[in-house]
Structures are given as C-alpha cells and as structure tokens.
Amino acid sequence: MPNTEILFKSTTNCSIDTIIEPLMEYQGVELAILREDLINAEISGNKFRKLKYNLLEAEKQQKDTLLTYGGAFSNHIAATAKAGAQCGFKTIGVIRGEELGGDLNKTLKQNKTLGFAYNCGMHFKFVTRTAYRDKDSSYFKEELKADYGEFYDIPEGGTNDLAVKGCEEILNATTARFDYIASAIGTGGTIAGIINGSLPHQKVIGFPALKGDFLDNEIKKYTQKQNWELIKDYNFGGYAKFNLELISFINNFKVNHKIQLDPIYTGKMMYGLIDLISNSYFSKNTRILAIHTGGLQGIAGINNRLQKAGKPTIK
Ligand SMILES: *Cc1c(COP(=O)(O)O)cnc(C)c1O
C-alpha cells in the first residue's frame, strides 16, 4: 500500500532572498523572494504544496492509483509522477495531444517533461484536444474507470479544496513582516491558499500567466477574504506565450541574482513586479515578498521551441 510519510517529512525550509538592486533603493522598497522552488529537488514549489493533502487523502481512501490531467509540458504532470513514485502510487497522466502517443519513444526522447514522468513510472493516456476539453464529463470518467478501475482523481493543474489547504502553508511566521505578497497564477488555487494564509495587514497581488476574466471568480470559490487583487497587464499575450524581452529579463535576472525564473509563470510575475516598482506603484518603505512557485522543469521544452526558431534561449 502507498505510504506518503517519507515524502512529507523531507521538506526543506525555504529561504527568503533579498533582491538587491539600485532600483529598490531608489524607490525605497524592499523586494524579497520566498524560495519555494527549493522545497523538494524534483517536486516543484506550489505543485508539492498542492499535492500534499491530496496524497494524504488518497492514502486514507486506500487508493493505489493517482490519475490526473495536463499538457505535454505540465509541471503538475511531472510533480504528480514523481510524488506518486516516491509514495508508491501508480500514476496515470491523461495528456492533451493524441499525436504524442503515435510514436511514444520519439515523444519521450523529445519531451523532457513526459520523459521524466515516464521514468517515474507514469502511464499515459493521450487524448485529442476535443476529448481533453470534455475530460470532466461523466462519460469521459466512465471510460477512464473502465480502462483503469478505481483511482484517486486529481484535477488539471491540481487545484481543489485540498490543494488550496496545502498552499495555505506557504506563508508562515517568517513572512509576517511583509506588506505585499506576490504570486503567479494559472488556475488560481495557489493564490487562493496564499490569500487564506495571509495576515490582515498583508495584501496579496496575483499575476495571471494567461488571459481571461474567469480567474476572479475561480479564486472566490476558495476564499472569503478580500485583501487581494489581480494585475492582468503582464500575461505576455496568454498562456505559454512570451517574447524575447521576457527571455532576456529572465537571463539578466539570473546573472544578477543567481535565481532561475521560468517564462510561463515566475518570470512574468517578477517582470511585472519590477515594472510596477519602477513606476512607483508601491509607496516608500513597502516590503514585498514574491513567491517563487518553482516550475523550472518546463524550461527545457521552451528552449527546444526557441532553438528551432533560431532565437536566443534561456541560459
Ligand atoms: C502551476 C504553477 C503556477 C500556477 O498555480 P495555480 O495554482 O494553477 O494558479 C504558478 N507557478 C508555477 C511555477 C507553476 O508551476
């Protein structure tokens, strides 16, 4: 039977690094970054937080299989595969893109995310984009049950009540002195947990990595609090979209601060934060904490894309 104990005893304390730049001094603000990316070597940042109570629940329900959903470069797929393997769960990934299943060996060679998940023991079900869109239908669930029997079902991106509960543990006593908490947003689960875990004097600001106005309502499903705001100006055109300015920002940030960001989530957040600071968005003496939610495994896939297009890559 699966056992989650080892995994959740293994978390390291995430440090808080101060970002030292003339800009911060000039604007009179403090910017620091909570290194949630360091929480576990291979189960990254917020995906670790989101899986914690779900894996405990799967164990309690005596399920031996985890099933979840994602795109071909999904941080959540990689994290679920690794966490499942460490705890002794079988894992099944329902992957968007039927064509990826045609020549599995080739896919595994070309796609580091899927190659990693496969090596962790994940079994894949590749589905068409149409089928993927209907993945929450009872028809699709019945089909999965017929194929795989009983499983513990984790939604795409990992967001549910238990995921939000896990993300409530991101903030703690050492983060209490900050006035603003900033996070990247995909489905909204992570920021909902951060909002729930925030203190009354703190304001949580979210940087959506994608376009769309549905996020406010998604977040309200998981939190009653109102000390938060979404800043929608830094999605760079949508999910997994970016430009060379963002790539060069990420490369410069790494040179200057020795911290790796990714172009899907944390790079957009940090670009936005620094732009806001430059434009005097924050008043003097404001202390800002950015959450590094991890997600670095996706960089290889992005670099593939950039290389093929003959463009500069993430260093
Ligand atoms: C998945 C992910 C997010 C978004 O988390 P949500 O809970 O879906 O909003 C943010 N940052 C990174 C690095 C991620 O992998």
Give a summary of the structure in a few sentences.
The chain is 41% helix and 15% strand.
Q: Could you walk me through the main structural features you see in this protein, from its secondary elements to its overall organization?
A:
With 315 residues, the chain is α/β, with parallel strands linked by helices. It folds into two domains: 10-41 and 164-300, Rossmann fold (3-Layer(aba) Sandwich); 64-150, Rossmann fold. Helices cover 41% and strands 15% of the residues. It has 14 helices and ten strands. Strands 1-2-10-7-8-9 form a six-stranded mixed beta sheet. Helix 4 (75-87) runs parallel beside helix 6 (112-119), helix 5 packs across helix 6 and helix 9 (161-167) crosses helix 10 (189-197). The chain is globular, with a radius of gyration of 19 Å. It starts with a helix and ends in a 7-residue tail after the last helix. The structure holds pyridoxal-5'-phosphate. Pyridoxal-5'-phosphate (PLP) binds next to helix 3, strand 7 and helix 10. Residues 28-294 form the Tryptophan synthase beta chain-like PALP domain. The active site is at residue 74. Keywords: Pyridoxal phosphate.
Number of domains: 2
Largest sheet: 6 strands, mixed
* Fraction of helical residues: 40-55%
The CATH class assignment of the largest domain is: Alpha Beta
CATH architectural type of the largest domain: 3-Layer(aba) Sandwich
Listing every helix as H and every strand as E from the N terminus to the C terminus, the arrangement reads HEHEHEHEHHEHHEHEHEHEHHEH
Domain Tryptophan synthase beta chain-like PALP: 28-294
Protein name: 1-aminocyclopropane-1-carboxylate deaminase
GO molecular function: D-cysteine desulfhydrase activity
Modified residues (N6-(pyridoxal phosphate)lysine): 47
